[in-house]
What does this fold into?
Amino acid sequence: MKRVFTTTLRLDLLDQEDRRAYERLRHLDRARYRSYSKAVVAAVNDYFDRQERLAADPYLETREKEDAFLQRVMEAVGNGLRAVPPAQMPEAVTTDEEDLSAALDFADSF
It folds into this structure.
């Protein structure tokens, strides 16, 4: 078997998805990917690994979406609590970091 396999990648710049891929390759983070080949290898492997995980666990994508949604809710609640000045908060509500952490832990348990 040859050590190096060479292939051609054709992108139709009139196709939206191909154009996005082309733009990402053009603005490649050279500190992270030394070449187009390294970026394409990472993308291909990630894509097929994900397809295999989805085949093995059909609810994986749903759980990932739920986790992402919950994370956004927790961040919004945390930001909202931090944004309210202590003088405007009712006496029963505190901005204590420990209370905030407990609230976020509770929300995370769902």
User: Anything to note?
Assistant: The chain has two domains: 16-56, 60-108.
